[in-house]
């Protein structure tokens, strides 16, 4: 896997000066981030620093007030209609709470895009779903269950299968290990690394789980108060020389980052 | 707080909400007429909204018809006008009570269900997930509900009309000892085609209102379980009020001068 963006190649995803606020609250205050093709970037940062907002801006679910977001060199802020379909077709996303459709059985969840958006035949879509479930270590029998019948870890795996089923060029992982035990977290991390390698996809992961970040990332960036305050190869994370990063990766309450806890 | 500021704030908030609803409505309607159409979703909504509402709507219509016959009797018997009861029952049911009672019951049943389902999908990010899977959530979730609800309500109301009139018939024949054949012929005598069709047009409008309010409140719900609860309440309350208001307006249009 690559350690940095290819210098001779245009970045797959490029954000420049992205601002997003909700009413008075400024969430992103000029985010600059560039991700090379087939690179895996992990964005770390505390809760409520706007990591999810960042992903939703790139997907076009949220619209930033200013700044550019380029995918394959094309500006995608405010795309509509056909262009938006084409834009979204490049993406797969694993949601924090899995976000499986609970009215559909597992296999229809996994093959949702081919079935609904690409007009694939049911039989074919089912085969694809079963194969994809296999690649995340789930048996074909799981395909006929409903999401509510699965444990959290299995739901995550189904969600991962759904994200990769249509072989997207770019995959987003939103806190892939949140709410899982350490062993299941590691299973998911392994699966992510394996699947991404097989697909050769570009990935952007947001997490506050350092074990996960170390496992998945080529490069790590830290988001704090709406800015990327540090970024570098994974191996540099332990001697970044940045007090914010140090505090975060060691999980210390004392340091430059002040959690807003009211004194009693 | 300054009371004038409070009034101004409330008024502006009302205008903003109206604008949001207008925007949402126009976009949702346009999605109903543009491809792709999710036929399986539409079919499923037909069953959910139409078929499974039959027991509730049928019972409501039956008892409404029955009580209507009893009440008209207690009034009309005072001036020997019992023979007008069949006409009163059939006109009241087809023109007014069938669509309104069915509308209110379906608003409670379906408006709430739609708002709760879409609201839960919103807070668990399932709606965002649809977008990332190249599926327009308004097209996939809202258009099928609007289409099904608008088309199926007239059918439900037609059935409710029949059951309601039958309720009146039961009371008059078995309790008040009317002649059954006379009752039926008198029911038909003054009934005009447009009495029934106007009720069915109302039903279609009510169906649209119910699904729209459920979708609007559910789709835009925020903040977990409490938000979903609030969305559900709002969906039922706004749908019920809009049904009653639009019922008056539609009656005014259909029977102007009559």
Give the secondary structure arrangement, pairings included.
The complex is a heterodimer of chains A (264) and B (258).
Chain A: E1 13-22, E2 25-35, E3 40-44, H1 51-59, E4 66-71, E5 74-75, H2 81-89, E6 91-94, H3 106-110, H4 112-117, H5 122-135, H6 152-165, E7 170-174, H7 182-199, E8 202-207, H8 210-216, E9 219-224, E10 227-233, H9 243-250
Parallel strand pairs in A: 3-8, 3-9, 6-7, 7-8
Antiparallel strand pairs in A: 1-2, 1-4, 4-5, 9-10
Helix pairs in contact in A: 5-6, 6-7, 7-8
Chain B: H1 3-32, H2 39-50, H3 54-76, H4 85-123, H5 126-132, H6 137-175, H7 180-189, H8 193-219, H9 224-254
Helix pairs in contact in B: 1-6, 2-6, 3-4, 3-6, 4-6, 4-7, 4-8, 4-9, 6-8, 8-9
Distance between the termini of chain A: 49 Å
Could you tell me the mean pLDDT of chain B?
92
Show unreliable segments of chain B: none
The helix-strand sequence of chain A is EEEHEEHEHHHHEHEHEEH
Structural class of chain A: alpha/beta
Q: Which residue ranges of chain A are poorly predicted, with pLDDT under 50 across at least 5 consecutive positions?
A: 1-7
Shape of chain B: elongated
Mean pLDDT of chain A: 86
The number of helical elements of chain A comes to: 9
Order of helices and strands of chain B: HHHHHHHHH
Query: Nearest-angstrom radius of gyration of chain A?
Result: 19 Å
Radius of gyration of chain B: 21 Å
In DSSP terms (H or I, runs of 4 or more residues), the helix count of chain B works out at: 9
The SS-based structural class of chain B is mainly alpha
Query: What is the 3D shape of chain A?
Result: globular
Main pleated-sheet profile of chain B: none
Proportion in β-strands of chain A = 15-25%
Query: How are strands sequenced across the largest beta sheet of chain A?
Result: 6-7-8-3-9-10
CATH fold field value of the domain at 13-90 and 168-250 in chain A: Rossmann fold
């Amino acid at each position: 896997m690559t350690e940095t963006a290819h210098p001779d190649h245009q970045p797959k995803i490029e954000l420049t000066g992205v601002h997003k606020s909700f009413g008075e609250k400024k969430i992103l205050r000029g985010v600059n981030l560039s991700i090379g093709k087939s690179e895996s970037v992990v964005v770390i940062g505390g809760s409520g620093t706007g990591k999810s907002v960042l992903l939703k801006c790139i997907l076009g679910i949220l619209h930033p007030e200013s700044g550019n977001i380029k995918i394959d060199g094309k500006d995608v802020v405010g795309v509509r209609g056909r262009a938006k379909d084409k834009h979204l077709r490049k993406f797969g996303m694993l949601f924090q709470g899995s976000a499986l459709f609970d009215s559909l059985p597992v296999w229809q969840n996994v093959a949702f895009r081919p079935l609904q958006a690409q007009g694939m035949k049911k039989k074919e879509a089912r085969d694809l779903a079963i194969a994809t479930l296999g690649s995340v270590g789930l048996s074909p029998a799981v395909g006929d269950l409903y999401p509510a019948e699965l444990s959290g870890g299995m739901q995550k795996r189904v969600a991962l299968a759904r994200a990769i089923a249509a072989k997207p060029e770019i995959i987003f992982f939103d806190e892939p290990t949140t709410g899982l035990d350490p062993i299941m977290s590691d299973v998911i991390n392994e699966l992510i690394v394996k699947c991404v390698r097989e697909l050769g996809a570009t990935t952007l992961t947001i997490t506050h789980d350092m074990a996960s970040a170390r496992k998945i990332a080529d490069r790590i960036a830290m988001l704090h108060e709406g800015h990327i305050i540090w970024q570098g190869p994974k191996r540099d994370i332990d001697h970044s020389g940045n007090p914010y990063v140090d505090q975060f990766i060691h999980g210390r309450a004392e340091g430059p980052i002040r959690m807003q806890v009211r004194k009693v | 707080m300054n009371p004038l500021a409070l009034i101004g704030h409330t008024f502006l908030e009302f205008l903003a909400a109206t604008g949001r609803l207008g925007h949402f409505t126009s976009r949702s309607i346009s999605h109903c007429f543009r491809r792709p159409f999710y036929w399986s979703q539409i079919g499923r909504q037909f069953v959910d909204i139409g078929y499974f509402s039959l027991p509730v709507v049928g019972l409501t219509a039956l008892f409404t018809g029955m009580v209507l016959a009893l009440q008209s009797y207690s009034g009309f018997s005072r001036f020997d006008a019992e023979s007008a009861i069949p006409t009163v029952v059939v006109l009241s049911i087809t023109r007014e009570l069938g669509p309104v009672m069915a509308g209110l019951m379906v608003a409670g049943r379906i408006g709430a269900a739609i708002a709760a389902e879409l609201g839960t999908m919103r807070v668990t990010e399932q709606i965002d997930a649809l977008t990332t899977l190249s599926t327009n959530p308004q097209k996939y979730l809202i258009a099928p509900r609007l289409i099904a609800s608008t088309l199926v309500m007239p059918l439900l109301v037609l059935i409710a009309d029949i059951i309601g009139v039958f309720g009146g018939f039961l009371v008059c024949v078995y309790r008040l000892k009317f002649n059954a054949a006379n009752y039926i012929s008198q029911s038909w005598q003054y009934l005009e085609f447009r009495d029934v069709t106007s009720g069915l047009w109302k039903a279609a409008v009510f169906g649209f209102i119910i699904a729209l309010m459920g979708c609007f409140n559910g789709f835009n719900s925020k903040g977990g379980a409490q938000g979903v609860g609030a969305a559900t309440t709002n969906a039922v309350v706004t749908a019920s009020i809009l049904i009653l208001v639009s019922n008056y307006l539609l009656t005014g249009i259909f029977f102007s001068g009559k």
